[in-house]
Structure formats: structure tokens, C-alpha cells
Automatic annotation (TrEMBL):
<keyword id="KW-0378">Hydrolase</keyword>
<dbReference type="GO" id="GO:0004177">
    <property type="term" value="F:aminopeptidase activity"/>
</dbReference>
<dbReference type="GO" id="GO:0004252">
    <property type="term" value="F:serine-type endopeptidase activity"/>
</dbReference>
<keyword id="KW-0720">Serine protease</keyword>
<feature type="domain" description="Peptidase S9 prolyl oligopeptidase catalytic">
    <location>
        <begin position="446"/>
        <end position="656"/>
    </location>
</feature>
<dbReference type="Pfam" id="PF07676">
    <property type="entry name" value="PD40"/>
</dbReference>
<dbReference type="InterPro" id="IPR002470">
    <property type="entry name" value="Peptidase_S9A"/>
</dbReference>
<dbReference type="InterPro" id="IPR001375">
    <property type="entry name" value="Peptidase_S9_cat"/>
</dbReference>
<dbReference type="InterPro" id="IPR011042">
    <property type="entry name" value="6-blade_b-propeller_TolB-like"/>
</dbReference>
<dbReference type="GO" id="GO:0006508">
    <property type="term" value="P:proteolysis"/>
</dbReference>
<protein>
    <submittedName>
        <fullName>Dipeptidyl aminopeptidase/acylaminoacyl peptidase</fullName>
    </submittedName>
</protein>
<dbReference type="Pfam" id="PF00326">
    <property type="entry name" value="Peptidase_S9"/>
</dbReference>
<dbReference type="InterPro" id="IPR029058">
    <property type="entry name" value="AB_hydrolase_fold"/>
</dbReference>
<feature type="signal peptide">
    <location>
        <begin position="1"/>
        <end position="21"/>
    </location>
</feature>
<keyword id="KW-0645">Protease</keyword>
<keyword id="KW-0732">Signal</keyword>
<dbReference type="InterPro" id="IPR011659">
    <property type="entry name" value="WD40"/>
</dbReference>
């Protein structure tokens, strides 16, 4: 942090801490890369009880290799690495072995001139990911990017793997330019240097054109096409002037395109991002998805015979496959209710690999035979020897909030995990409200061992709301918390507290709140606004003041976040930030607080955690503090995640369960 920023932080703290307040005593411990303050020793009994839940693992598919095997990401030691699986339920052969997790796995295409895959890796969670090539023949890895303080990712390969496009901040550390690499010659060059946040989408079949998009916010993107030889950019017209776009891909003929957009269609406004087909030559424009929900992703088979896409219907994912070019729907097997991701067609185009995750089972890879409509499981991930039949599947509930839609109370969706074990003597379960980040994210019923432990072992009900500003419910809902309306999403938590109080099986006097990133801000804001109604809170890598956050987040993110939260350089917006700041209202936080952070976080700097801890303690309130010096925006190393989980469980035991009637 700069000297002026430090001074501003000190002045802010001075303004919120009464002169007579006594800072709570701090017991600081450093063990390896872990720093704790006032976190008690974790009891051995708790570690033993948690062990099986902490030894669950999942597997997600990244694509097919040239020999018909699947490239998957899974963890067998501390971090997720690349593995290969060649038969259904076959051995997972580990290919990469790094202390840091690898991601962005992009296998060579079926007609590629060499066999292997591209992957990304950073250092200590700093998110300055570098790209590497893993050669399947030699099992060696080669650095492809500058290896410096740059962010590189979004890899796209052309049909024979001779060209590789990716986004990089290497030029100035702020803008994401499009780079192109000649993989045969081993040379890279900037293809598109326009300023802003650009991403590569898809090469044309002949490799001469590249679809690109400039991302401004969740509500605004601008697609175009670049001539690979000359770098000439042609932007596409946008109906209505501004819209949100998802995927963009060339049709097999290389002339038409498939894309996801919320542009008006046939003169009618569109609330959701739908899948569309456009042939510029004929002017034909067709909307292919037929439900009033967002399309979350799609994939066109390399052989051009099929297209698969996913719709997100009230938090439940549905898969569809179309035959090309007729767009006729293909019969599919019934899939479990949950989250679907990682669409990848086999090299011969006859099979589709997907990642399936449900509330009661971790992610695993399945393959659909498109000819027989049969589903075959390729991985079976461990669940620590636990009986998955005891896991709780949530129900979707809706609770009324403070404002109205068409004269009726607006309702907010939430997933409700109700314990199966008997309620305490008072007949009511304590509650943890888990708020997602983003803020444009969406909570969906995915497998969470932490949630299952709270529900099954501790008898704590868990509510996971999608407050206003969440994606998945239309662009009007997405915009409801923007800029000066930020605190309206906090009011939704107040409405949820009202709903809890009306449920006969829930204990409104024992409610905790947890969340990460923007969800961490929501934790602090909820504690600030409802101090008498929330007993404790866990803030993970959360924002404590939007002004200091925007000043100190990495430069490549600053304008993107201003588009969502507001611009702190505008006096009126700065006044809003000051009014809703947990840091400047720390005296209102009177419940026990646990703050956890990664030291290398480029998104929400660790200073956001340190300043709120100091401010709350300055008012004499107890705070647990945890920081990992080898993590960033979240905890990706198993040992670190295990320690945090255990500490969080201990925190809930002490502050939600300690006075439970027996």
C-alpha cells in the first residue's frame, strides 16, 4: 500500500474508533505460511470428525486427447493437477506435478500437428498465470509466456494447433490484449491492442479469422472479428447499442456464427442470454434456446455435426444437444439434477464428455453416447468413506423482500439445507446464511462438504440466497444492486432474517452469516446493519471499504469493478461508499467476527482484511484473524483449506452452539 493510502487508512480508522475504546488483546502465531491471531487451538476430536469430509475430492473434464483418452483435473495430494483417464472408471494417470494448482487445460485438437495440452499456473495464488505447453511424447513442459508479472489465459487453438490465441496483460499490466503464437516457429506477437479487457473466442475453420470480445461488465460486451494476418478488427453491430454476450463460435461452414446474447430479438426485449445462430450472407437469425432462462455455455463439435448447450433454469442446469445444420434436438439420457459443465465432444464426434455435480455428490466425469443416448461414468471420486445417502439435498424456497414487482412483493430465491437429525430441545435449528461472491455470481446446488458437515454433524440449517444482483434471473435482476443501490442487496438479507423468524423449525436468535469476496462484504454489511439479529460472521477475502478496495485492487481489474460497484472518483459515489462502508461503520459490528485472507490476493488485497480487523478490535470486539502467505483469492492448497474449515467449524461451535439447550 502507498504512503498516502496508509495515511488515509489510518485517518479512517481514527474516525471510527472511539477515543476511550480499548483494543482487544492479540495473540499472534506464525506456523509456516499460516498466520493466526486469536484463533484457538483446533481440538483433536474436531479434526478427527472433519477428516472424512475433508478427504472428498472431485474430477472435472478438460477435453479429449488425440488417442481417445480424457484429460481431467483432479487432486490426489495438495493441489489440483492434470490427469489422463483412458477407459471408463480407469486409472487416473497424473501428468503434472506442481506445488501450485494448474488450470486452463486446453488439449491439442484432433488434427493437431503435435500431441499435448496448454495449461496455466501462477505462484501462491497471485493470479499472474503463465501458460505452458505439456508435450505428450516427452512429458516435458515449456513456458510459452513472459514469465513475469503478467496475467495470461483464455487459450484458443486453431484446427491443427499451429496457432494459439490468448489474452495477456504483458504490455502494460492493465489492458488485456490478444496475442497470437505460431506454435511451430515458437514465436508470439500482439494481434489486437485496443485497450480494455479483450478475450479470444474462436478461430475460423481456415485459421484466418479470430472471433474476439471486449468485456466491460456483466451487462456489457462488444464482439468482433480480427484478421489474423493483418490484425484488422471489425466490430459486430449490436441491437439496441449495448448488450451482454456469452460464447461466440464459428459455424462449421466458417461463415455463420453461433453466439449467446441478451440483445432484443425480433424487436422484443430479452431478459435472458439466449443461444442464437446468425448467417450474415442470408441475414438469417434464429433463436435456438427455447426457455426463459440463461444459456450458460455451448460447444460445437470439431467434426461440425453437433452443438451442445447448457441452460440454467432457476439454478438447475439442463443439457441440450442439436444436430447440425438442421438444429434438430438429439435424444439424451436423463441426467441427475445438479450442475453441468465442461462440454467436450470426442474426436470422432460421437460422444460428449461432461462434468456432473450434485448437492450430494462431488464432480465426476460422465460420457454420453449420442448414438445410443446412454450415459457412462468415467470417474468415481472419493467421499471419504461417507454414506452419501445421508447427504442433504436442498429445497428451493422464495422469501418476500422489501420492494415490489408489478404490485406484488418481490421474492428472492434461496437453497435451503434442512438438517435430518432431531432439532435441539428448543425445537429450533441454528442457521448459517452463506452468501455467494461476484457479486454477479449465482449460488447453485453443488456439492459442498462444509455444508454437509454443518447440516449432518452439527445440526445447523444452511440457507444459500441469491440476493438481487445475482446472475441467472434476468438482466433486470442483475442490475438491481448496481452502484448507489448496493445496500438494497443487504436489505434482502434483512428480509431473509424476517423469513427465518417465521419458520417454526429455525432459531432466529442463533443466526450466523458467511461469505467470500463480495460475499465477505455482505457478511460485514449484514453484521453492521443487523447487529442484534446476527450472532456471528465469517468473512473470507472480503471487501471492507469500496474506496480502498478500488484504489488497491490490481490495475487490470479496476475499471471492471468500477463498472459494477461505481466509480470512487465521483464525489456522489464516494459519499455512497462512505455511508455503506463496514470500515467506517466498524463500531456497529458487535458480533464475534472471523476474517480469513490470502496474502497474495490480487482481487481483494489483504489490506482490506487487516483494516477491518484493526477497526473492529479498536471497538473492543473480539476478532479471529487467519492469513495464508502462499494463497490468493481463496484457499487452493488442501492443508490450508483444511485448517480454515476446521477453524470455521470451531468458530460456529463456540458462537452458534455453545449455549444450545440440551
Amino acid at each position: 500500500m502507498t504512503r498516502p493510502a496508509l495515511l488515509a487508512c489510518a485517518l479512517a480508522l481514527a474516525s471510527v474508533a472511539p477515543a476511550f475504546a480499548q483494543t482487544a488483546a492479540v495473540e499472534r502465531k506464525e506456523v509456516g505460511n499460516r498466520v493466526t491471531e486469536n484463533v484457538p487451538a483446533i481440538p483433536a476430536e474436531l479434526i478427527d470428525r472433519l477428516n472424512r469430509y475433508q478427504n472428498t475430492r472431485g474430477a472435472s473434464v478438460a477435453g479429449w486427447t488425440g488417442d481417445g483418452c480424457l484429460l481431467v483435473s483432479t487432486r490426489f495430494a495438495e493441489t489440483s493437477q492434470a490427469h489422463r483417464v483412458c477407459t471408463p472408471m480407469g486409472m487416473r494417470e497424473q501428468l503434472t506435478f506442481y506445488p501450485e494448482p494448474v488450470g486452463g487445460l486446453t488439449p491439442a485438437p484432433k488434427d493437431g500437428w503435435r500431441d499435448g495440452f496448454v495449461f496455466a499456473k501462477d505462484k501462491g495464488g497471485d493470479e499472474f498465470s503463465q501458460l505452458y505447453w505439456f508435450d505428450a511424447q516427452t512429458r516435458s513442459s515449456t513456458l510459452l509466456t513472459d514469465g513475469k508479472r503478467s496475467q495470461n489465459g483464455g487459450t484458443v487453438l486453431n484446427h491443427d494447433g499451429s496457432l494459439m490465441a490468448y489474452a495477456s496483460t504483458a504490455r502494460n499490466g492493465t489492458d488485456r490484449d490478444i496475442w497470437i503464437r505460431d506454435t511451430r516457429a515458437g514465436t508470439s506477437r500482439v494481434l489486437l491492442q485496443q485497450g480494455g479487457n479483450w478475450g479470444a473466442m474462436d478461430f475460423s475453420p481456415d485459421g484466418r479469422q479470430l472471433l474476439v470480445s471486449r468485456y466491460v461488465s456483466a451487462n456489457e460486451s462488444y464482439p468482433g472479428v480480427v484478421d489474423v494476418a493483418t490484425g484488422k478488427l471489425e466490430m459486430f453491430p449490436i441491437d439496441g447499442g449495448k448488450a451482454s454476450f456469452g460464447g461466440f463460435a464459428f459455424a462449421p461452414d466458417g461463415k455463420a456464427v453461433y453466439f449467446v446474447s441478451d440483445e432484443p430479438f425480433e424487436g422484443q426485449p430479452s431478459e435472458f442470454q439466449t443461444l442464437r445462430y446468425h448467417d450474415p450472407a442470408s441475414g438469417k437469425l434464429v433463436q435456438l434456446s427455447d426457455v426463459p432462462w440463461d444459456v450458460d455455455g455451448f460447444e460445437v463439435a470439431e467434426d461440425g455435426r453437433h452443438l451442445a448447450y447448457i441452460t440454467n433454469e432457476d439454478g438447475i442446469y439442463k443439457l441440450s444437444v442439436l444436430a447440425l445444420p438442421s438444429h434438430r434436438r438429439v435424444k439424451l439420457p436423463e441426467l441427475p439434477v445438479g450442475v453441468i459443465g465442461g462440454l467436450h465432444f470426442s474426436p470422432d464426434g460421437n460422444r460428449l464428455a461432461v462434468t456432473l455435480n450434485t448437492a450430494s455428490s462431488p464432480s465426476d466425469v460422465h460420457v454420453i453416447d449420442l448414438r445410443s443416448a446412454k450415459l457412462e461414468r468415467w470417474t468415481r471420486s472419493e467421499v471419504g468413506g461417507l454414506d452419501t445417502s445421508t447427504f442433504v439435498t436442498p429445497t428451493l424456497v422464495r422469501f418476500p423482500t422489501f420492494d415490489q414487482v408489478d404490485g406484488q412483493p418481490r421474492t428472492i430465491p434461496a437453497f435451503y439445507y434442512k438438517p435430518t437429525k432431531p432439532a435441539p430441545a428448543n425445537g429450533r435449528y441454528p442457521v448459517v446464511i452463506d452468501i455467494h461472491g461476484g457479486p454477479e455470481g449465482q449460488a447453485v446446488p453443488y456439492f459442498s462438504p462444509d455444508t454437509q458437515y454443518l447440516v449432518n454433524e452439527l445440526g445447523i440449517a444452511v440457507l444459500v440466497p441469491n440476493v438481487r444482483g445475482s446472475s441467472g434471473y434476468g438482466k433486470s435482476y442483475l442490475k438491481l444492486d448496481n452502484a448507489e443501490r448496493r445496500e438494497d442487496s443487504v436489505k434482502d438479507i434483512g428480509a431473509l432474517l424476517d423469513w427465518i423468524a417465521q419458520q417454526p423449525e429455525l432459531d432466529a436468535s442463533r443466526v450466523g452469516v458467511t461469505g467470500g469476496s463480495y460475499g465477505g462484504y455482505m457478511v460485514l454489511a449484514s453484521l453492521m446493519n443487523y447487529p442484534e439479529r446476527i450472532r456471528a460472521g465469517v468473512d473470507v477475502v472480503g471487501i471492507s471499504d469500496f474506496t480502498t478496495f478500488l484504489n488497491n485492487t490490481e490495475s487490470y481489474r479496476r475499471d471492471l469493478r468500477r463498472a459494477e460497484y461505481g466509480d470512487e472518483r465521483i464525489p456522489e459515489m464516494k459519499a455512497v461508499f462512505d455511508r455503506i462502508s463496514p470500515l467506517k461503520n466498524a463500531s456497529k459490528i458487535r458480533s464475534p467476527l472471523f476474517v480469513a485472507q490470502g496474502r497474495n490476493d490480487p482481487r481483494v488485497p489483504y489490506t482490506e482484511a487487516e483494516q477491518i480487523v484493526k477497526a473492529v478490535r479498536g471497538n473492543g470486539q473480539p476478532v479471529w484473524f487467519l492469513m495464508f502467505n502462499d494463497e490468493g483469492h481463496g484457499f487452493r492448497k488442501k492443508a490450508n483449506g483444511d485448517y480454515f474449515d476446521a477453524a470455521a467449524i470451531l468458530f460456529w461451535q463456540q458462537h452458534l452452539l455453545a449455549n444450545e439447550d440440551k
